Amino acid sequence: MVIVPANSETIARAAELLRGGGLIAFPTETVYGVGANALDASAVARIFAVKGRPASNPIIVHVADTSLVSTVAADWPDVAARLAAKFWPGPLTLVLPRRVDVPDEVTAGGPTVAVRVPAHPVALALLRGAGVPVAAPSANRSSALSPTTAQHVLQSLGGLVDMILDGGSCPGGIESTVVDVTSLPVRLLRPGLVTVSQLEEVVGEVVKVSRAQPHAVLRSPGLMDRHYAPRTPLELANDDGTARVGQLSGRVGWLTWNDVHGVAGVERRSLPRDAVGFAAGLYAALHELDSLGLEVIVVAAVPSDPAWLAIQDRLSRAAHRS
Fold first, then answer.
1. Residues 53, 142 contacting (CB under 8 angstroms)
2. Fewer CB under 10 Å: which end of the chain, C or N?
3. Partner residues linked to 113 by β-bridges
4. Quick one: average pLDDT of 141-149?
5. What is the maximum alpha-carbon separation in the chain?
6. Which residues 6+ apart lie within 8 Å of 12 measured at CB?
7. Peptide bond just before 133 cis, omega within 30 deg
8. pLDDT value at position 80?
9. Residue in 67, 65, 188 with CA at minimum distance from that of residue 128
10. d(CA 182, CA 314)
11. What DSSP string runs through 173-184?
12. How much is the pLDDT for 282?
């Protein structure tokens, strides 16, 4: 189906399609997701087929409010309640013990389920209208760049979904933070828009998990070595990238800072020097460069301080070579 503007009529139709086993792409405050009824194993299996997603990679379940977590989670520990009170609706995903009736397709066969309440008005209206928990990874081919516009979804998944709700550009620009609260101290599985320092203000110590253990059952998406990657090879500079792009021949893309001068013959895109602004524009800039048929994209080194942890994570995985 073609892209449709998100309004009360199209959201109601999308909710009906979800209840009937359909796949709906929709905006959140992080990136666009492609959703299915999380309690319908066949519908969730369609997500994996459309994305080319490994069965070992679990999917985050989205619910309309905290009271509906119990539709997919078997327990609601105090630490989860405190984090939800602070950050929901918002870009924080909590990993909880699963209910037995949650399909293995959602959890990659593991004992936990990842859940969040999104902050985007279109996502919340869709969830309320559907009346079911919605399993929704990013609306793109597996390991590729996440979409932050409806057009990105169309370019990646085309007509493989039943509807793409266009709610404009996603303001956050990168995926949610994922925290495992099944044991203490809580574990950070994926950095995101909620920072470690913000988490620590609520729960104290947070243990960082940098990579999944070999052969371990994944509790969160975003743990594969290569992820969030454009089709064009991506290279990380150790400075603003000026010297490196000057060394390269052919068609070169360059993602750097607002105040860095361009280099002749190089396709340059610039982003702010603050972590929030950089995150908001990162995928959109990479999508644009990736559409130009370049030979390589060079990305300026980002700061090493904790506020940039999620961006460091996304770029390192995007540049990873299998």
1. yes
2. C
3. 96
4. 94
5. 59
6. 129
7. no
8. 98
9. 65
10. 25
11. -SPPEEEE-SSS
12. 98
